[in-house]
UniProtKB/TrEMBL annotation:
It comes from the Bacteria. The keyword Nucleus does not apply. Keywords: Cell membrane, Membrane, Transmembrane, Transmembrane helix, Transport. This is Cobalamin biosynthesis protein CbiM. It is found in: Cell membrane. InterPro entries: CbiM/NikMN (IPR002751). It is a multi-pass membrane protein. It comes from Gordonia rhizosphera NBRC 16068. One of its GO terms (cellular component) is plasma membrane. Signal peptide: none annotated. GO terms for biological process: transition metal ion transport. The chain crosses the membrane at residues 26-45, 57-75, 87-112, 124-143, 155-176, 196-218.
Length: 243
């Protein structure tokens, strides 16, 4: 999630890493991690893709791509935009969702120079893999904890918490990568404090957008929401579910 800050020492500390933020060996390492992770996602997504998921995945990728163009202010001089990992995972599943985010990141890097090409593996690891799977695991745990007949408002709370956790987890991935091979001038302590602090706030915005979007989809077409497909209460009684 790009951040705009006045201090040159911290402008390098952005979720969309540019080239030169981490050194070549670490970039290569997480390039391999991203490749392996996406390969698993491609393999597993084959079982998730059906007549509902395929068009939904296209819509999710397009929506996230468009919304990521809009930054919202967090603090003076600090702004962020939607990551979309938890949102994609809730709507189309973690494996397909991770692929959607990865496609968005690749297009942004190659066509809009948003994120460095050499850092693409690290960016995919953080935003497409870590954010998506952490967000989904939190959403799944919350949904199972609440059980059948959960109201849409409570589901919105689950989506909010999942998105917040996914955002902070992605920031943690950045901190780990920077600790392994940071090539910028800022110290690891500075980077960690900045990333966790600002991305907790950014996660609140992420959570609100995710919650509102998920609630809207559930009210309109609950059968399209991947997270809810194992819960017959939404599919068979959508009116009662949104009460």
């Amino acid at each position: 999630m790009p951040l705009t800050v006045p201090d040159a020492a911290t402008t390098a500390v952005a979720m969309h890493m540019s080239d030169g933020i981490i050194d070549a060996p670490v970039s290569l390492l997480f390039g391999l991690v991203a490749f392996a992770g996406l390969a698993v996602c491609v393999w597993r997504a084959r079982t998730d893709l059906d007549e509902k998921t395929v068009p939904m995945a296209g819509l999710v990728a397009a929506f996230i791509f468009a919304v990521q163009m809009i930054n919202f202010p967090i603090l003076p001089g600090v702004s962020g935009h939607l990551l979309g990992g938890a949102l994609a995972a809730i709507l189309v599943g973690p494996f397909t969702g991770a692929l959607c985010i990865a496609i968005v990141l690749i297009v942004q890097s190659l066509m809009f120079a948003d994120g460095g090409v050499t850092a693409l593996g690290a960016n995919i690891t953080n935003m497409a893999l870590v954010s998506t799977f952490v967000g989904y695991l939190v959403a799944l745990a919350g949904h199972r904890l609440l059980g059948r007949g959960t109201s849409v408002r409570r589901l919105g709370v689950v989506a909010f918490v999942a998105a917040l956790c996914g955002t902070v987890a992605a920031a943690t991935g950045f901190v780990v990568e920077y600790g392994l091979g940071g090539a910028a001038q800022a110290s690891l302590t500075t980077v960690a404090g900045y990333m966790w602090g600002t991305h907790t706030l950014i996660g609140v915005g992420e959570g609100l957008i995710t919650a509102v979007t998920v609630m809207a989809v559930v009210r309109a077409r609950p059968d399209l929401v991947y997270l809810l497909r194992s819960r017959t209460s939404y599919a068979t009684d959508p009116i009662g579910a949104v009460a």
